[in-house]
Amino acid sequence: MTNAKYVRVTDSFTSDAALQEHPNNAEFFLRPFDRTDIEWLLSRNDPAARDLPRLVEEILRYKMRTAGKATGKGIDQIALPLKRITYVESGGAAQKGVLTMSIAERPGCIPVGSLLGATLLGMSRHQKEPLKKEDGTTVIICVLKIETVEPVR
Question: CA-CA distance, 95 to 72, in Å (whole number)?
Answer without folding.
Answer: 27
